[in-house]
Amino acid sequence: MLFRSTPRQPSNHGKMAGGDETTEDMKALYRAAHEQFGSEWASKKQLYELAKQLELFSWWDIEDRKGQTAFGKAINRFNGRHLGGIVLEGGGAKNNRRYRFSLVNDDAKVVGDNEGTSGTSNEVHSGAKPENTPTPSPRQGTSGTSGTSTIPQEVKNNKTYPVRTIGGVVEVFSVHGVKQVPDVPDVPSPQHRVLTDPSPLGEVAAIIRQSGNAVALDIETYGNGLNPWRGDIRLLSLAIPEHPAWLLDLKAIGYDLGELGECLQQHQVIAHNAKFDLLWLRHKCGLRLDNVFCTLTAARLLSNGKRELRNGLYACWERFLGVSPGTDHGKSDWGGMFLTEDQLEYAALDVFHLHELQEKQQLLINKEKLGDVLHLENRLIPVVVEMENCGFGINKERLLGVIEEYSTELNDALGSFKEAFGEETNPNSPSQLKKALEKKGVKLADTSEQTLKEEGLPPTTCILSYRSAKKQMEQAETLLKAIEEDGRIHARFEPTGTNTGRFSSKRPNLQNIGRGKLRHCFVPDEGNLLVVADYSQVELRVAAVVANEERMIEAYKNGVDLHRQTASLVLDKPIEDITKEDRQLAKAVNFGLLYGQSAKGLVAYAKKAYGVEMEYDRARAIHGKFFSAYTGLREWHERSREAASKDLKSVRTVSGRVRWLPEGKDTEWIRFVGLLNTPVQGGSADALKQAMVDLADKLPPAASIVSTVHDELIVECTSDTAEEVKALVETAMLDAVQTMFPGVRFEVESGICDSWAEK
After folding, report:
1. For the chain, first and last CA: distance in Å?
2. CA dist., res. 78 & res. 74, Å (int)
3. Which end of the chain has fewer CB atoms < 10 Å from its terminal CB, N or C?
4. Of 226-230, 459-463, 685-689, 703-707, where does mean pLDDT reach its minimum?
5. Would you say 570 and 623 are in contact if contact means Cβ atoms under 8 Å apart?
């Protein structure tokens, strides 16, 4: 059967290696920087370029100044940290910081903590054993044992679990708790029971059913702590009010949760970064948990646009509950034979506050009128979990062929580069490139892609060709490394990964696969087909409604090609005389000026995005004609500029999603752009999310959503259901967007394909 996920038994190898999103990407940067620079000092600019090439930190726009600032702050936060056997050292004056990435000793121990779920980082500590560290003792109460164990004295003294085993249940009463924040009452230490045998699972299920409460849930992982296909779950932590937390040692119990699994599928679960936990439980245990409240999602909705607010679990404790944890014992090895009491307490604490956190967040959600948006996002999480668990099929042999072609292109580009600049010049070193260009009489402020394109001379073109070839090669190799044993790529999709509400994607980023050779590699399983559907000009149509732009609305109502109409209006040509080149120019005009670009910005955007060359004076004339023709857009822009100048605090999508805007005179332009793109991009994103939720309930059993790219959905299904699925996809997408934006006619373009590239 298609998309069947068979739970695997846990392996006994590996230490936990994971981290929050920033830590995981930082680890990749550590590796790449060490490979490129060795132990030599590198500038922040060089690290910007490297991160950009590797497509890391996708939630920041590294090319944007604010994104660079956020990236720089992150680099400084990691100063002195060890990741993957490499240490980051920073030095130099504030305005001339330098960084180097050096190997640490071989005896370093990798441990970690995950921001979203508790317990994942890649921080490396010395392998030397700290003073007074407890020595693990032989484990008591392993699977299949019963009765009361005899506990060695040294275990009691060192508080190493188990403390007492009765009928496969280990009872531990912790003495540690959360640190008291001034003027905040003491928070009691959570009681918890460690289950190492499956026999009590039915009892736990009965207690949960009888309580009728939602279940707080969290997992601790090891091996590859971010990838269910390459790692394992150690602990599953569960909690309901007025009961000790249950800590299920799945390394001992296995992944078959029996009656307890059925119980969890029938109850609402509360989790922080629920998508992470649910994906692991779906893949490993076969559980489909459809009723979920994600406290991370709620926190993000309440802080959307407020970069100063952090949304990790402990940050949410402080922000919503006024308490903070003590020592973070999540930075430990979850794959070892023994777990300490401190580790167990940490796991219990992660679920201890979730019910209270949900209650506090729900009050604020209601106050900010975000209930509908949160409901949509929570319903979407199980849909995305199924999408990630299914994965996207890829033809490995075809991909290897593309890599071979890219390798030839890269070698040719490198050869041309060496001919131009000599063997001694490193094409990946911005400082060396600047010096080499200066020798040829080309003085540039930097070697960014935009600067090189603007220069447009043969030496800079040579550099751009090399970078383009290198980038496509790296992208292809990233895809190859991401293929799992089932022959599919299981990328991660983050529904709340952007301020506008659009999806982001990573590990690998499937939203960055351009139309071309790589898309040909994405294929369905044998006997299956792909249904690929996307909205036609959805942002322009949504903008027409938001701005009440009657001329655009009328064009769409009558089936007029808007790009041809715009070309006719700004070029003063009859619409029947519009050429392909004219239409291409109009696309740049429509999409560029929609979000407030100046004439100067239009010149750069048209060249970069559409290969259209135009002089500034021509762009200025087109700019004026565009807003004279589309008066609704002009008035919308004027209202937005006025609101931005008055420090408007927030903007919402039609569904109610809020984005808080930065304050201050120097952020007026950012507020203006946010007032334009949030209702448009965010509104269309909300429509697509609604379509995904509606579609998931109607798809036949042997069909699954496998990917989404902004305004596009890709579904894999059996060949005999392809026409049915195509109709279902079109209906779901149209119904969702027409319901939200009834003022304009929308269209969905779809096709049935043998590969992603064929539509």
Report:
1. 26
2. 6
3. N
4. 459-463
5. no
